[in-house]
Amino acid sequence: MVARRVSWSLGFAILIVVLASTVAISSAHLRAGSASATASGQAPGPSGYHLLKKIKLGGEGFWDYLAFDSPTRRLFISRGTKVVVLDVDSEKVVGEIPDTAGVHGIALVAGSGNGFTSNGQAGTVSIFDLKSLQVIGHAQAGMNPDAIVYDPATKRVFTMNGRSGDITAIDAVSGSAVGTIPVGGKLEFAVADGSGHLYVNVETKSEIVQFDSKNLAVTAHWPLDPCTNPTGLAIDVKNHRLFAGCANKMMAVMDSDSGKVIATPPIGVGVDSNQFDPGTGYAFASNGSGTLTVVHEDSPSQFSVVEDVPTQSGARTMALDPKTHEIYLVTAEFTPPPAPTADNPHPRGGMVPDSFVVLVFGR
């Protein structure tokens, strides 16, 4: 009897050890599987992006590009003849940059302490002090300077001149124009890789141009097929990927070394801006139809649409804060568009007075 009890106890102990070992092995497998999924870059679940707050600014004037200055928490908003500067924490306008006729974009250069605006109607660039917001100079650009971008590799600011189809280079320290280089076509947004290259969307040719920012020369014309009429552009510098927002409802992902189109995930209607957040691996497209498309970079060769976050009609341009991962969009309410005419086949409705707002999206 005693011998049987000892035998039974020994057998039970062995069973416990076996079960514990099995659980440990299973847990290890689960942890390994989870780590493998993370390492492979599989698409996460919903992004969690939602409307955090709506800041009503009102005022007159349509808008184009936005720029966000993380150190000062200031959002720079182009408004036709001026740039409005908003403190996003206090929700108060802290200043304006005046006399920027037809302003499209804003480039912020922390190293020089200056900012630059592309003034489309005037064909000029306004140079302003980032702290005081006072205009301290001007530079001549081409016809209808649209996008404007700073290249840290050359310490130059570049304007993409939409009507004259060329690029103007400006020394960010002296504020002097260095040269204007012909490209051809209607130039839209551009990005710099920090290693001496610019990449520019050519809307009318549905291509991306690679540009040598040091020697001021076009080095490649890359077709974006099947993408048509690209506008917004973003870059993943680490993985050498470009994200172009296309009029035919897709985001063309291109290898910035070879010019090869890798993927074309679907996006919403009316895209005008793209952003990439290296901290989360998300690429964004802000669509005038009222959605924010979130695409995840699962790996450098695979991209998944996570979701289309509802925003508001007309919210087609945006800025990203890479520190908080928040997205800033602007829009307004509109009256119904008038009937189309031969001179204006795609008329837009007027803006409802004092309806202009900033939308803040986060996780």
What characteristics describe this protein?
363 residues, mainly beta, 4-stranded antiparallel β-sheet, 1 helix
Question: How is this structure best described in words?
Answer:
The structure is a single chain. This protein has 363 residues and is mostly beta strands. The protein folds into two domains: 63-223, YVTN repeat-like/Quinoprotein amine dehydrogenase (Methylamine Dehydrogenase, Chain H), CATH 2.130.10; 225-336, YVTN repeat-like/Quinoprotein amine dehydrogenase (Methylamine Dehydrogenase, Chain H), CATH 2.130.10.10. The chain is built from one helix and 28 strands. It has one helix at residues 2-39, and strands spanning 50-56, 66-69, 74-78, 83-87, 92-97, 103-109, 114-119, 124-129, 135-140, 145-151, 156-161, 166-171, 177-182, 187-192, 197-202, 207-212, 217-223, 230-236, 241-246, 250-255, 261-263, 271-277, 282-287, 291-299, 302-310, 318-321, 326-331, 357-362. A four-stranded antiparallel β-sheet has the order 1-28-27-26, with no helix packed on it. The model is unreliable at 1-40 (pLDDT under 50).
